[in-house]
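Researcher: Can you fold this with KG4 in place?
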Amino acid sequence: MLILGIESSCDDAAAAIIETVRPGAVTVRASAVANQDDIHRAYGGIVPELASRNHVITILPVIERTLAAAGCTLGDLGGVAVTRGPGLVGSLLVGLMCAKGLAQSAGLAMVGVNHIEGHLLAPMLEHEVPMPYLALVVSGGHTALFAVTGFGHYRRLGTTRDDAAGEAFDKVAKLMGLGYPGGRAIDELARTGSTKRVAITRARVKGAPLDFSFSGVKTAIALYLASADGAATAPADLAASFQEAVVEMLVRPTIAAAREIGAETIALTGGVAANSRLRDRLSAAALADGRRVVAPSLKYCTDNAAMIALAGSYRLLRGERDPLTIDAAANLPL
Ligand code: KG4
Ligand code: ZN
């Protein structure tokens, strides 16, 4: 079955066509993303109204490009999977209404998908990942640990109590004048810096060892930058020290959670999964603990529609469909 995925929950408008024969066995025929970083950069963060207005402009061309790249037409499709939440409501509505229009006009089954479910399953786009596995979803909007025991069966084990890890990267990058989004700039700068130059307390959540907290690290960096010592610190050292703190705060609960559920495989996913230090440290910690880390390639770590098509595929294969009356939900729970 060929499935069209549509994703527009935040600032990326994306479409993909995947081919699937049974749940989890997929080939990505085409995947395209219209990125808006250039539009939001001037504001140092995502402006929701600009995001949705740009989706209105880009979503259909992205879908047309994807169909052309996959060499198929709407008539060849077995269904449409679209993100219905969580995310920015104006952004979600653009993709959702587009999917409804296509489903209605081409007589296709449509299912609404949870964006986080897409991230959880993304490693399966390229790897055989035996279930159950532990997934660390770490992006600009989310930082959470999930046990994945089957398609549609997910249990949240821990989450951030405040900022997402990617948000911390972006806010610290902004403080350091590295631009937006700043995760990659910090990653690159940190390569030549000392992780021990600036002492940063690793935050833990009392009584909840699998939860995360990143707002304290961000505040610590802001205070440090304003101090005399901060002004004299090389940016590379500050970046490396900050990154190391965030990475350690991600790795410890992740290994603890994998032990708790007895998962041999840890799936690392979301935009921050692109972080080179996180990949290295988590892989080393997992290996030392008799486990392995599976991470999608960069284009499937960040927001994309192939993961949305995959998350909708097992329901479409079962013949399920959602009514054309489904709504977008900014806080859709998984
Ligand atoms: O998954 P994503 O594209 O969008 C969300 O759903 O949030 O993730 C974007 C986030 C941004 O916060 C960005 O700074 C961060 O991922 N990011 C990184 C790296 N590359 C992207 N953070 C740290 N190191 C990187 N190399
Ligand atoms: Zn995402």
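Model: Folded with KG4 in place. DSSP finds twelve helices and ten strands in the chain.
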